Each structure stands twice: as C-alpha cells, then as structure tokens.
Amino acid sequence: MNTDKIFAEQLANEYAPKDDSKVVALRKLDAKAKLPATIFAYTFGILSALITGVGMCLSMNVIGNGGTAMFVLGVIIGIIGLLGIAINYPIYKKLLAKGKQKYAFEIMELAKEISKE
Q1: pLDDT of residue 110
Q2: C-alpha distance from residue 45 to each of 56, 75, 84, 91, 97 (Å)
Q3: What does the pLDDT average to over 45-60?
Q4: What Rg, from alpha-carbon coordinates, does the chain have?
Q5: Where is the chain membrane-spanning (predicted)?
Q6: Running DSSP on this structure, what letter comes out for residue 66?
Q7: What letters, b where the CB count within 10 A reaches 16 and e where it falls short, cover 41-51?
C-alpha cells in the first residue's frame, strides 16, 4: 500500500475547488434548522447545572456562612437548578420542531430534486 499516494490524494482533495452540490446544500439546511435548538439546549443545560451546583455548595456549607438560612437558600436554589435541567429537553424538542417546520419546505423541495436525479 502506497501511503504517499494516499496522502497526496487527500491533500489534493483539500485544495481542489469544491462544487456546491445539492446534497451539501441539503446538509447545510438541516444544520441550519437544528443549530438554534442545540445551542439553546447546551447553554441552558450548563447554566442549570451550575445553578444546581451553587445550591449544593450553599446547602453543604462549602460557600456561605453555614447557617440554617444558607442551607434553606441552597436547597431552594438547587431545586430551581434541577427544574431547569428537567425542562431543558422538552424545550429543546419544541425549538427543534419549530426549526424543522421553518425549513421543512425548502428541505423537502431540495430532497425531491436530489431523488429525481
């Protein structure tokens, strides 16, 4: 097996002019439909997990003065964070459905064109 030849072909493919085919356009539309929901889900999930962590730290006296009020505040903040984590996936599904609905016509038309070829 000639690895130099394989490497040369891969490198040549990187520098060769790319033709924007319909399949590439279809993939871009698909990504465009899913990207906002994905970004929201990651951002909201991370923030909810951080809020939960702050609540846990307060309730276990890692931060704060260690009083009963801090414990109660920590439990409340932790529950708020856990609720955020719990609703993250349903919100993601709704945002994903909206994104798919928004680009559905364009994606379906492009898919029909590709399948006819």
Answers
A1: 86
A2: 16, 19, 7, 11, 19
A3: 96
A4: 24
A5: 37-63, 69-92
A6: -
A7: beebbeebeeb
